[in-house]
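My main concern about presentation is that the manuscript never shows what a single data entry looks like. Each protein is reduced to its one-letter sequence and a matching series of backbone shape codes. For the editor and my fellow referees, an illustration may be useful. For illustration, here is how one protein appears when written out as sequence plus structure tokens:
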Amino acid sequence: MCGRYATTRSSGELSAIFESSDDTAGEVGPDFNVAPTDPVPLVRLSPEGHRALCVGRWGFLPHWASTAAGAARMINARAETVATSRAYAGAFARRRCLVPADGWYEWVRSPEGRQAYYMTPADGSVLAFAGIWSTWGSGDGERLTFSVLTTAALGELAEVHDRMPLLLPRDRWASWLAAAEEPTGLLVPPPPEWLAGLEIRPVGPAVGDVRNDGPQLTARVPLARGVDVAEPTLF
């Protein structure tokens, strides 16, 4: 999975969709070009056991990390190794979260250059990426951080990139958040018929610059001549 996605719903909308409290203190705003270390919404269980919408920074920091310098390199955790990784295993066992998203971006290289694609539900519904979270630092410097789990891409998504976020259909949200004695059973990709509801949309090159934002980034563009999602050259 590449390091960009979009999350544009308000905290009120997300709280209603995920049936959670809103603990964001007004910090959630539309972001059509989320990049590593950006602050974005996530849903986790509160100490009291209810769902809470919070703001976390994309880029996992284990509590033992000496600095925050490595956060941008820890935006993704592989589903195949998350349960045994020194950095991620504890969070996977006890601190799982849902990461709301409208869609995510990937790039395909062709002789004509790079073509960006936006993967998003065709019906406009929200996506929930499987995530894990951690708190890092102390006092005024404490921050909530998270990583998105990735897995092998399936179906047509594999023609764009060999990895995809671990996507959680609504009926898996509760089990992902809940404590589980054997959480590795949760690392199952969604069924093919659910994935078939995703649109693979060619979009313009502006999303490649983190300074760009706005709904124009997700607008469909004509596919460049010679760029075919059915036969990409992956990188």
